[in-house]
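Consider the tokenized backbone below.
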């Protein structure tokens, strides 16, 4: 994805689409946008940390040790983010399933059935 497109998506105001999207859809898009902004900030912080570690004057052993510990912490963070992402996706899926179940139930209630004795 190009930088212009990603910046546009990260700065988009979804409230302007209130006539086209439900409040739940708008809230979900905002949550994804917030997650993307947080991940972008995390990426920038990691780049900064890597630059700081590379510029240490204590030699390679300290830099390597720091990078290894940083990588280990990032692996733990990656696992946690994966769990949170899975839970978030399952929540969105559950909302979609519930809404489609409600729509199907409403359609059943609105259809009129013809009694057997009138035929």
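A designed sequence for it:
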């Amino acid at each position: 994805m190009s930088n212009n497109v990603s910046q546009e998506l990260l700065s988009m105001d979804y409230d302007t689409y209130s006539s086209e999207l439900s409040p739940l859809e708008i809230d979900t898009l905002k949550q994804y946008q917030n997650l993307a902004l947080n991940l972008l900030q995390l990426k920038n912080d990691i780049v900064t940390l890597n630059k700081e570690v590379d510029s240490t004057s204590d030699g390679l052993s300290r830099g390597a040790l720091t990078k290894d510990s940083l990588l280990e912490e990032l692996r733990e963070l990656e696992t946690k983010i994966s769990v949170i992402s899975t839970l978030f996706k399952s929540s969105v899926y559950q909302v979609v399933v519930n809404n489609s179940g409600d729509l199907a139930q409403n359609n059943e209630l609105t259809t009129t059935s013809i009694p057997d004795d009138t035929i």
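The helical segments are 3-11, 23-54, 60-110.
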